[in-house]
Design goal:
The structure is a single chain. This protein is mainly β and 112 residues long. The chain contains one helix and eleven strands, in the order E-E-E-H-E-E-E-E-E-E-E-E. Strands 1-2-3 form a three-stranded antiparallel sheet, with no helix packed on it. A hairpin with a 6-residue loop joins strand 2 and strand 3.
Protein backbone atom coordinates (compact mmCIF):
# COMPACT_ATOMS: atom_id res chain seq x y z
CA UNK A 1 0.00 0.00 0.00
CA UNK A 2 1.36 3.43 -0.91
CA UNK A 3 2.04 5.98 1.79
CA UNK A 4 0.11 9.26 1.30
CA UNK A 5 1.56 12.49 2.75
CA UNK A 6 0.02 14.20 5.77
CA UNK A 7 -1.97 17.39 5.18
CA UNK A 8 0.37 20.44 5.12
CA UNK A 9 -2.34 22.63 6.73
CA UNK A 10 -3.50 20.50 9.68
CA UNK A 11 -1.04 17.56 9.62
CA UNK A 12 -3.91 15.06 9.42
CA UNK A 13 -3.06 11.52 8.25
CA UNK A 14 -6.52 11.04 6.66
CA UNK A 15 -5.60 12.41 3.23
CA UNK A 16 -6.74 10.79 0.01
CA UNK A 17 -5.76 10.83 -3.66
CA UNK A 18 -8.12 12.73 -5.99
CA UNK A 19 -6.65 12.52 -9.49
CA UNK A 20 -4.05 15.28 -9.86
CA UNK A 21 -4.14 16.38 -6.22
CA UNK A 22 -4.38 15.27 -2.60
CA UNK A 23 -7.36 16.22 -0.40
CA UNK A 24 -7.71 16.41 3.38
CA UNK A 25 -11.28 15.60 4.53
CA UNK A 26 -10.61 17.01 7.98
CA UNK A 27 -9.84 20.62 7.00
CA UNK A 28 -10.77 20.63 3.29
CA UNK A 29 -7.26 21.56 2.12
CA UNK A 30 -6.31 20.54 -1.44
CA UNK A 31 -2.73 20.52 -2.77
CA UNK A 32 -0.97 19.42 -5.92
CA UNK A 33 0.83 16.08 -6.28
CA UNK A 34 3.65 17.77 -8.20
CA UNK A 35 4.82 19.56 -5.09
CA UNK A 36 4.20 23.00 -6.53
CA UNK A 37 2.97 25.25 -3.75
CA UNK A 38 0.32 27.94 -4.15
CA UNK A 39 2.96 30.67 -3.81
CA UNK A 40 4.93 29.22 -6.74
CA UNK A 41 1.78 28.86 -8.82
CA UNK A 42 0.76 32.46 -8.14
CA UNK A 43 4.23 33.88 -8.82
CA UNK A 44 3.48 33.89 -12.56
CA UNK A 45 2.36 37.38 -13.60
CA UNK A 46 -0.56 37.26 -16.03
CA UNK A 47 -2.20 39.97 -18.14
CA UNK A 48 -5.93 40.77 -18.23
CA UNK A 49 -6.54 37.88 -20.66
CA UNK A 50 -4.61 35.32 -18.59
CA UNK A 51 -1.49 35.22 -20.77
CA UNK A 52 1.77 34.89 -18.80
CA UNK A 53 4.08 37.92 -18.95
CA UNK A 54 7.89 37.87 -18.89
CA UNK A 55 10.58 40.55 -18.70
CA UNK A 56 11.03 42.38 -22.00
CA UNK A 57 7.47 41.86 -23.27
CA UNK A 58 5.47 44.57 -25.02
CA UNK A 59 2.02 45.23 -23.57
CA UNK A 60 -0.98 47.40 -24.45
CA UNK A 61 -3.00 49.36 -21.86
CA UNK A 62 -6.68 48.32 -21.89
CA UNK A 63 -8.11 51.14 -19.73
CA UNK A 64 -7.50 54.88 -19.28
CA UNK A 65 -5.18 55.20 -16.28
CA UNK A 66 -4.79 58.43 -14.32
CA UNK A 67 -1.22 59.27 -13.32
CA UNK A 68 -1.05 59.92 -9.59
CA UNK A 69 0.15 63.44 -8.78
CA UNK A 70 -0.32 64.68 -12.33
CA UNK A 71 -3.07 65.69 -14.72
CA UNK A 72 -1.73 63.22 -17.31
CA UNK A 73 -3.62 60.12 -18.41
CA UNK A 74 -2.28 56.94 -20.00
CA UNK A 75 -4.80 56.35 -22.79
CA UNK A 76 -6.33 53.04 -23.91
CA UNK A 77 -4.18 51.39 -26.58
CA UNK A 78 -0.88 52.86 -25.38
CA UNK A 79 1.90 50.38 -26.15
CA UNK A 80 4.54 49.90 -23.48
CA UNK A 81 7.76 48.20 -24.58
CA UNK A 82 10.38 46.32 -22.59
CA UNK A 83 8.54 45.81 -19.29
CA UNK A 84 10.20 44.54 -16.10
CA UNK A 85 8.32 42.34 -13.65
CA UNK A 86 8.65 43.23 -9.96
CA UNK A 87 7.12 41.98 -6.71
CA UNK A 88 4.41 44.01 -5.03
CA UNK A 89 0.98 45.44 -5.69
CA UNK A 90 2.04 47.08 -8.98
CA UNK A 91 3.85 44.22 -10.66
CA UNK A 92 5.09 45.88 -13.88
CA UNK A 93 7.88 48.46 -13.93
CA UNK A 94 8.13 50.32 -17.24
CA UNK A 95 8.69 53.59 -19.06
CA UNK A 96 5.62 55.04 -20.81
CA UNK A 97 6.48 57.23 -23.77
CA UNK A 98 5.54 60.86 -23.12
CA UNK A 99 4.99 60.30 -19.40
CA UNK A 100 8.11 58.61 -18.02
CA UNK A 101 8.80 55.78 -15.58
CA UNK A 102 5.71 54.13 -14.09
CA UNK A 103 4.51 51.09 -12.20
CA UNK A 104 1.47 49.33 -13.64
CA UNK A 105 -0.83 46.55 -12.49
CA UNK A 106 -0.93 43.56 -14.82
CA UNK A 107 -4.74 43.50 -14.71
CA UNK A 108 -4.83 46.69 -16.81
CA UNK A 109 -2.62 45.49 -19.67
CA UNK A 110 -2.72 42.82 -22.37
CA UNK A 111 0.19 41.20 -24.14
CA UNK A 112 0.81 42.77 -27.56
Amino acid sequence: MSELPNCPACNSAYTYDDGLQYVCPKCGNEWSKTGETEAEAESVVRDANGNPLVDGDTVTVIKDLKVKGSSSVVKVGTRVKNIRLVDGDHDIDCKVEGIGPMKLKSQFVKKA
